[in-house]
Amino acid sequence: MRTAFVALFVLLLTTLSPAPAGAADNGEWSVRPADSAITPRAAFELPAQPGTTLTDRAIVTNTTGAELTFRLYVADAHNTERDGGLAVRGIEETQQDVGAWGKPERDTVTVPARSAVTVGLTLDIPHGASPGDHVGALVAVDTRVRPAEGSHVGVQRGVGARIYLRVEGPEQPGLTVEDVRFTARSPQIPWTGSSGSTLSYTLHNTGNVKLAPRVSFRTGGVVVGGPGERQLANVPGELLPGQKVRLTETWAGAPFAGWGKITVTASANEVRGSGSDGFLKVPWLVTGCAALLVAAWLLLRRRRRATRATRSARTAAHD
Fold first, then answer.
1. H/E element holding 286?
2. CA 117 – CA 135 distance, rounded (Å)
3. N or C: which end of the chain has fewer CB within 10 A?
């Protein structure tokens, strides 16, 4: 019986890291801009004007011992919902921005073993292109479909070199923090276990330029335990214009009791945005024990009063 494979597209965008360096490379093949006369380039960084055509060159390198064939296409880039990392639209998806403007010189290229091929790239910037940053990638997809280990699923891999277009016009950076949610999960008895509290929020680039946001939070109100302010680490290195990412961070040292609000603040390119969530954290076991102690004290006090009243009544009757 023949094994049926479903092709999954796995794309490696090495140059889409916060600090790109070198070609997009998966160890078998790479895609990079052809070096300029002045300096090597890690990505296509091109100024653009509406209604103009840009041309450039890319080098596709095959480092394996066998001939490889690749499908080439230009794709739109976007931030992933999972962690804010950068990804691109698949080859069969509809491209709407850079992916719709760009076209490689050849749709398919065959690269001999341990060799490189130079391919031309054209970008037709439409007259109605909005000013600001437009980000995409030139992608080389291996035409082979490889079986995934332990699965009846096939995998196609791709490598992409990033394309940065800055369309001429006013730059309008904008950044907001939306839908802040603090979920408290602390041990019933303070200091007897770890806290699994989480802080979730949405970063939204409302402007027309890419941002490298810095995010922190602070607590306000009456709290017991936990830092008053902290810098958040799991933040995307680049947030593209118009993109939203939902981020969640575990807060191991969250306050175990108190009430107030937590404010998340993001800043980049001299713009800031903030969002808050109120909270009330009560360690119910401790509160219950305290309530029992208060009830016991009130009951003991009541009995003492009753005893004193009985004694006073007996004394009066004796007299």
1. helix 284-318
2. 24
3. N
